[in-house]
């Protein structure tokens, strides 16, 4: 047992609104934030800069108050961050959901819910913005037949060509989980994806005893309302950590400027600067190198469609 009222360094392993579980060796303390820390994360005019200054995965300096409670005094610099744009009372602010993760595992399902490339591409951009690697996990492979699989393999080859690892899984085919296990081992991963794609099922299958609830719909967070999202980190017996993000529904892209959106699509890079207009949005302009590349089959139409949706409808969730 550490002495009371000394400052120690710990790790945030669970975050609820206003309360954080901080792990320090074998103890876990329920912590609140020191007022000065909260104030430091406001702008000069007192406007909130973050939906919440502390995130799961953060290394923090804390003071222990008693056997169960403590106060977070300071946050150490983050290596990476998984953030989304959050609609605060006075405009958009950043919500860091997980800090210091190595990679995002973006889970999509073949069916139920239908495969959504828009959501997938948003997550890939968020990984890039937050300095994390991204892995794609296509789950529910058991729901498609041979022809469907061939078609999916072709579509996802596009992502493999862009450098993303793609893992094909089904919770009904235990061997299919081996690749996912290997990818998660010894890393800190954030599992993201729409509700119902099988995130909790996959984690339960990988980690015996985890017992996450299946079919549970994340807490809906309405714009402008304070979020009650619970994010939690789990340890894997094989080595590694995962953060489950059950309440994350809208993924507004934080720090992504619509004007520069083309920089987040690696396949567009070779064509940038070669359009007729140098401020080309690549949506309806004549002599556009990107649109030509799409027509020529050099840029995949699904990826281009994601670009157009984000470019024309904005990057908010
Ligand atoms: N057929 C099939 N169903 C799956 C698979 N993975 C998950 N499910 C089902 O999909 C539903 C949603 O799963 P859940 O793990 O709660 O999804 P989450 O919302 O992403 O955490 C449940 O009914 C699961 O049994 C899979 O690989 N194949
Ligand atoms: Mg779940
Ligand atoms: Zn263009």
Give your account of this protein's structure:
It contains 7 helices and 13 strands. Strands 1-2-3-5-4 form a 5-stranded mixed β-barrel. It has helices at residues 35-40, 117-129, 146-161, 178-184, 199-206, 289-295, 301-313, and strands spanning 7-16, 19-24, 27-33, 59-64, 69-75, 81-88, 91-99, 103-109, 133-139, 165-168, 188-192, 231-235, 241-244. It is of the alpha/beta class and 317 residues long. It is flat. 22% of the residues lie in helices and 27% in strands. Mean pLDDT is 87; it is low at 218-228. It has 3 domains: 7-77, OB fold (Dihydrolipoamide Acetyltransferase, E2P) (Beta Barrel); 98-244, P-loop containing nucleotide triphosphate hydrolases (Rossmann fold); 258-313, Probable gtpase engc, domain 3 (Ribonucleotide Reductase Protein R1, domain 1), CATH 1.10.40.50. α2 crosses α7. The site of zinc ion has 7 residues, from α6.
């Amino acid at each position: 047992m550490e002495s009371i009222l000394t400052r120690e360094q710990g790790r945030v392993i669970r975050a609820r609104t206003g309360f954080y579980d901080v792990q320090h060796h074998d103890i876990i303390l329920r912590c609140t934030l020191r007022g000065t820390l909260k104030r430091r994360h406001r702008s000069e005019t007192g406007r909130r800069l973050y939906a919440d200054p502390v995130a799961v995965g953060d290394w923090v300096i804390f003071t222990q108050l008693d056997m169960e409670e403590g106060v977070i005094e300071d946050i150490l610099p983050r290596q990476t961050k998984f953030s989304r744009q959050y609609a605060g009372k006075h405009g958009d602010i950043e919500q860091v959901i997980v800090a210091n993760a190595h990679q995002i595992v973006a889970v999509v399902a073949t069916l139920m819910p239908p495969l959504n490339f828009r959501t997938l591409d948003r997550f890939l951009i968020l990984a890039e913005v937050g300095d994390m690697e991204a892995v794609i996990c296509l789950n529910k492979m058991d729901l498609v037949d041979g022809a469907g699989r061939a078609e999916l393999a072709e579509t996802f080859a596009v992502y493999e060509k862009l450098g993303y690892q793609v893992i094909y899984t089904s919770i009904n085919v235990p061997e299919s989980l081996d690749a996912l296990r290997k990818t998660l081992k010894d890393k800190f991963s954030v599992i993201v994806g729409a509700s119902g794609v099988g995130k909790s099922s996959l984690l339960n299958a990988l980690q015996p005893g985890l017992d996450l609830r299946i079919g549970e719909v994340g807490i809906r967070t309405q714009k402008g309302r304070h979020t009650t999202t619970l994010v939690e980190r789990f340890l894997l017996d094989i080595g590694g950590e995962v953060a489950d993000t059950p309440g994350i529904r809208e993924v507004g892209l934080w720090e992504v400027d619509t004007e520069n959106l083309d920089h987040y699509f690696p396949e567009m890079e070779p064509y940038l600067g070669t359009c007729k207009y140098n401020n080309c949005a690549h949506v309806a302009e004549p002599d556009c190198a990107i649109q030509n590349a799409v027509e020529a089959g050099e840029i995949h139409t699904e990826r281009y469609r994601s670009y157009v949706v984000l470019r024309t409808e904005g990057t908010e969730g």
